[in-house]
């Protein structure tokens, strides 16, 4: 069953059935048109013929020619057009008749009665002044006719009839012929469709086979270029070119990987830690330096002239300077943490107060970026941990949010939530900022220490550097969850901490 389904999905089979379906639809359409139009057209044609004969006969009587035997002429017209003609001077006196049976079946009908009875019937094909053309059926022979009842200019009554019983047989014969021809066409078209589809799909199947092998890094098969200049041939040339370039590139990459592996094996663990330390320091000092610069510029530009504000600015600068010194030492300890050699200086503290302190320290950056920040927090968020490292986690999340916040619906926004989950007895802290989502494939990679796509290390490109690696190391040590989720109109980073008894 599965193989049958797969065969019906193939281009060749679908092309065959599509062509056959089109032919069947065309034949059915022709049969439908034949049934609807043929009879109408036939009646229209016969009606025009009768009208033309009326004009001709009327002209004979209106302008008689002594050299013409009118009765013989009318009989010739009747034979030539397969019609019956009856001309009466009044309801009883017959002038000319070409068929005695016609005289017997209709000779006693008066024109006045015809005009006065059911003139709006669907059997009436034409009606004007003293002329009416309609369909009638002979009750004895059960044959249908088109009959003209008219008054000539000399007041003679003219009757003309044409048998139409053959039209239904003609339609049936025509339909049967269409079905017969359609069957032959479908059979021949099926053979042609099979041949054409095979010629059409063979190069596609060949290209598909080559592409599958390329996906398995097998570049041995190449497309056989044909003499025809079409899109498939061009595609084959492009695939051959791509195959050659990929094969060459992969060989170069393999060679480069071998060389890199040798280089890595030759480097000692101490050298790796040294380089990592330099990278960590250069990255992590950016935030405190930015804060110091912001508050220093505030002092220089005399943003707040009161003594209390100036003192606060100076205290922040001094505090951040001290923290830079501590940060360098902590980065060294982070190396130990990743190798299982670091112990945290845990103590009880209020997480809500710590979050407020981080927001206060980042307030200058928030205002400079015109960001609206909101904090929604439960009360009494007592945790037992190293407040310095937890502050680093919150600061990394917040500065990251400030850096990547973008306007959505006309405003930049950061929302911090700190909520207690009573079932797990944990507090979840989340930092949401409006802006671009992170690529799905990068959601796990951004936690790597050295992960970056380009030198900008921005979130849109997937890089997150040391900051998020530090979060990962801290949370792994506390065996609590952390992560990032794409939200509608932005991104949300989060972490969890165990609650403890009140301070």
Describe the structure.
The protein is an alpha+beta fold. Among the domains are: 2-169, Beta-Lactamase (2-Layer Sandwich), CATH 3.30.450; 344-498, Histidine kinase-like ATPase, C-terminal domain (Heat Shock Protein 90), CATH 3.30.565. It contains 14 helices and 13 strands. The chain has a six-stranded antiparallel sheet with strand order 2-1-6-5-4-3, sandwiched between helices. It has a five-stranded mixed sheet with strand order 8-10-11-13-12. It has a two-stranded antiparallel sheet with strand order 7-9. α2 packs antiparallel against α6 (166-215) and α8 runs antiparallel to α10. The radius of gyration is 49 Å and the shape is elongated. The two termini are 70 Å apart. 22% of the residues are buried.
Write a brief structural summary.
With 503 residues, the chain is an alpha+beta fold.
